[in-house]
């Protein structure tokens, strides 16, 4: 593929070569920001993370991100070691060290920490969690609507690796993304175990049919914060929205399709499995939702 793109593509910004990174209470230059080869996150993907966005000096939906981080840590029985206030002040310290105010993105990661021996059992993770915050200047840059390909990698059932968890290990999603790329697409459209359309490897998925917005039931996908905000915005602005099961038949013939995520807000989808969606461009309902979301961000990040 000559014109590769991705939903997390940002404008090149040379300032990102010199960012300061938070590593376990220290803020260090990018080149010195390292974790141990014995880290549980490196060895096993044993950790959880959040992607957050800074607009106009304010972290958007910070409470929701903190709720989700602490819920996920509890679910995997990981003691973060500091409370919400501590995590928020680490984030603010990182922001201050980088002197960032707007159009910045943070990846806040917490792993089960450094192991005493190179084995899986959590008993070997004895020295407390590893906490890392990477902040970057980040202005999303999307040259065209995204292309999706349906892949064989499905969203699992909650009793295997609950797909609601923002786990460090994203291998299922990474494999899905690779399969999509090999099929000539930018990102993977993933089905649930019944074959209903669920989500993509890195974002939540929506279609628009006859003016109504459809998304999956919410089972088997990440509890996307942007997803929830889009549903709320539809409900409070007279746009019919359904959380329901739907198939590829409904999807290919949709008038519009778009993705949601903290990074890209709402990303239009132009093509799925070689079928053009609508006219292949940003559609009117997606455009309206984008505007509503922008106003919401202006309001909450005033
Ligand atoms: C698989 C997946 N789906 C959806 C999302 C979007 O979630 P949010 O809107 O909270 O950024 C993410 C973001 O991390 C993700 O990894």
List keywords for this structure.
302 residues, alpha+beta, 9-stranded mixed beta sheet, 6-stranded antiparallel beta sheet, 26% helix, binds pyridoxal-5'-phosphate
What does this structure look like?
- This protein is of the alpha+beta class and 302 residues long.
- The protein is built from seven helices and 15 strands.
- Strands 7, 8, 9, 10, 11, 12, 13, 14 and 15 form a nine-stranded mixed beta sheet that branches.
- β8 (187-191) and β9 form a beta hairpin.
- The chain is globular and about 55 Å long.
- Pyridoxal-5'-phosphate (PLP) is lined by residues 51, 166, 173, 199, 202-204, 222, 224-227, 260-262.
- Pyridoxal-5'-phosphate is lined by residues 51, 166, 173, 199, 202-204, 222, 224-227, 260-262.
State the gist of this model:
The protein is α+β, with helices and mostly antiparallel strands and 302 residues long. It contains seven helices and 15 strands. Strands 7, 8, 9, 10, 11, 12, 13, 14 and 15 form a nine-stranded mixed beta sheet that branches. A six-stranded antiparallel beta sheet has the order 2-1-6-5-3-4.
């Amino acid at each position: 593929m000559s014109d590769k793109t991705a939903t997390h593509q940002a404008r090149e910004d040379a300032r990102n070569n010199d960012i300061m990174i938070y590593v376990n209470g220290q803020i260090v230059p990018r080149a010195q920001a390292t974790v141990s080869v014995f880290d549980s996150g490196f060895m096993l993907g044993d950790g959880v993370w959040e992607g957050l966005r800074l607009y106009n000096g304010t972290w958007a939906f910070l409470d929701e991100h903190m709720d989700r981080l602490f819920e996920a840590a509890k679910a995997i029985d990981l003691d973060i070691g500091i409370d919400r206030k501590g995590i928020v002040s680490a984030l603010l310290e990182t922001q201050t060290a980088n002197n960032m105010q707007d159009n910045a993105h943070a990846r806040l990661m917490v792993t089960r920490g450094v192991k005493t021996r190179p084995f899986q059992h959590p008993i070997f993770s004895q020295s407390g969690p590893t906490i890392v915050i990477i902040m970057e200047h980040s202005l999303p840059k999307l040259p065209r609507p995204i292309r999706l390909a349906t892949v064989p990698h499905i969203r699992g059932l909650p009793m295997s690796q609950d797909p609601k968890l923002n786990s460090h290990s994203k291998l299922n999603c990474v494999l899905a993304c690779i399969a999509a790329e090999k099929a000539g697409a930018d990102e993977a459209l993933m089905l649930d175990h019944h074959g209903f359309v669920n989500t993509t490897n890195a974002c939540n998925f929506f279609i628009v049919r006859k003016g109504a917005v459809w998304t999956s039931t919410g089972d088997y996908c990440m509890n996307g914060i942007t997803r929830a905000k889009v549903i709320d915005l539809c409900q409070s602005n007279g746009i019919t929205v359904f959380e329901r099961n739907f198939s590829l038949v409904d999807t290919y013939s949709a008038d519009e399709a778009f993705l949601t995520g903290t990074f890209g807000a709402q990303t239009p989808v132009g093509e799925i499995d070689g079928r053009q969606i609508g006219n292949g461009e940003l559609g009117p309902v997606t455009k309206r939702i984008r505007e509503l979301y922008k106003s919401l961000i202006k309001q909450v990040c005033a």
